[in-house]
């Protein structure tokens, strides 16, 4: 199991520790570093900055939101950074949800998310392979565009720039069972938002047809500390926000995932409290047991013991949301390459 460093997205402003953390991860032998985006900082600019300050560590997006860019634009970002970094780019994509797609990006959320995802990946693959002009007769991503307001002058094009790697890895941040199953067919890997090594049955059917070499790269908060309850608080804060605030009461993929993992009643309570404006109560309502099973928190000996569970399953890459260099070092020592 390889190690990656997940830096997430910016809050109020850039985090001055992100580059030093990425450099330390590279020095410790971490395989990859990943950035994210929500409705603030974008995913590619910080990753490019990190690329300029590192030399060997792989560079991933976890995730680039599909609604933020046309698929050809995303492919251009990926092939450009792959060239500039010497072939270190890994493209992680995610559809997000209706609240963000329609509220922030001002676009309709696709009525058929699986079809929209499949077409998007198809376009990206065509750009990266550069075998001919990009042509997709799609429901959501037609190339050339042939909608009712089209001029009819669109011409199929292929990229001027020759991609460095036609097989640049594409991963998907899928959550629903059908979406995960499709991911095993159209992508090189999967970026789970929550992963519990004690509940392999949650994803077993969806991953049944995953090919050899398929990447499973979940994110997990990692914190070396003596007080487990205190160490779990940032995990619970994240869960409270995602389950309560990252989606509508009628459609929240994160809450649905928590429910599938055995915490349906708790997920709906967190949603209700958050939407009522009782955010602190929503965070406290996150069960310690759930926060604990999807993270690695506690003294070094406890993390070492729990890390064995992660290594026994299908996880190929553990993407650590680690807050400090000491934690990065401990994790590297416990999981030598």
**Average of pLDDT:** 94
How far the N terminus sits from the C terminus, by CA atoms, comes to 8 Å
Compressed to H and E, one letter per element, the order equals EHEHEEHEHHEHEHEEHHHHEHEH
Helix content: 40-55%
Radius of gyration: 20 Å
Helix and strand composition category: alpha/beta
Number of domains: 2
User: In terms of quaternary structure, what is this?
Assistant: single chain
CATH class of the largest domain: Alpha Beta
pLDDT < 50 runs, ≥5 residues: none
GO molecular function: oxidoreductase activity, acting on paired donors, with incorporation or reduction of molecular oxygen
InterPro entries: F420-G6PD/mer, F420_OxRdatse_Rv3520c_pred, Luciferase-like_dom, Luciferase-like_sf
Organism: Streptomyces aquilus
Protein name: LLM class F420-dependent oxidoreductase
List keywords for this structure.
single chain, 337 residues, alpha/beta, TIM Barrel, 2 domains, 13% strand, LLM class F420-dependent oxidoreductase, oxidoreductase activity, acting on paired donors, with incorporation or reduction of molecular oxygen, Luciferase-like_sf, Luciferase-like_dom, F420-G6PD/mer
Helix/strand layout:
Elements: E1 2-8, H1 18-28, E2 32-35, H2 44-52, E3 58-61, E4 64-65, H3 71-85, E5 89-94, H4 98-103, H5 113-129, E6 170-172, H6 177-186, E7 189-190, H7 201-204, E8 215-216, E9 219-224, H8 228-245, H9 253-275, H10 279-284, H11 288-293, E10 296-298, H12 300-312, E11 317-321, H13 325-334
Parallel strand pairs: 1-2, 1-11, 2-3, 3-5, 4-5, 5-6, 6-7, 7-8, 9-10, 9-11
């Amino acid at each position: 199991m390889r190690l990656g460093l997940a830096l997430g997205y910016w809050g109020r402003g850039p985090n001055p520790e992100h580059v030093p953390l990425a450099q330390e991860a590279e020095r410790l032998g971490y395989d990859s570093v990943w950035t994210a985006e929500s409705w603030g900082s974008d995913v590619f600019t910080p990753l490019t900055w990190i690329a300029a300050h590192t030399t060997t560590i792989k560079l991933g997006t976890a995730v680039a939101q599909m609604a933020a860019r046309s698929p050809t634009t995303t492919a251009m970002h990926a092939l450009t950074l792959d060239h500039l970094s010497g072939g270190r780019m890994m493209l992680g994509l995610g559809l997000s949800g209706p609240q963000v797609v329609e509220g922030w990006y001002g676009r309709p959320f696709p009525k058929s998310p699986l079809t929209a995802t499949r077409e998007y990946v198809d376009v990206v693959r065509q750009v990266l392979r550069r075998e001919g002009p990009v042509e997709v007769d799609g429901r959501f991503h037609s190339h050339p565009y042939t909608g009712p307001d089209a001029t009819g002058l669109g011409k199929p094009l292929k990229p001027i720039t020759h991609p460095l790697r036609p097989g640049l890895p594409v991963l998907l941040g899928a959550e629903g069972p059908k979406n995960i199953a499709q991911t095993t067919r159209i992508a090189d890997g999967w970026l789970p938002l929550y992963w519990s090594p004690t509940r392999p049955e949650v994803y077993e059917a969806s991953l049944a047809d995953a090919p050899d070499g398929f990447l499973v790269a979940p994110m997990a908060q990692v914190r070396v500390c003596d007080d487990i309850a205190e160490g779990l608080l940032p995990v619970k804060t994240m869960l409270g926000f995602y389950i309560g605030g990252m989606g509508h009461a009628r459609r929240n993929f994160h809450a649905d995932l928590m429910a599938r993992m055995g915490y349906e009643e708790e997920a709906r309570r967190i949603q209700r409290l958050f939407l009522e404006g009782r955010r602190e109560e929503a965070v406290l309502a996150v069960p310690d047991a759930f926060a604990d099973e999807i993270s690695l928190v506690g003294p070094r000996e406890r993390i070492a013991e729990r890390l064995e569970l992660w290594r026994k399953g299908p996880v190929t890459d553990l993407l650590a949301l680690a807050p400090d260099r000491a934690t990065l070092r401990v994790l590297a020592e416990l999981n030598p390459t």
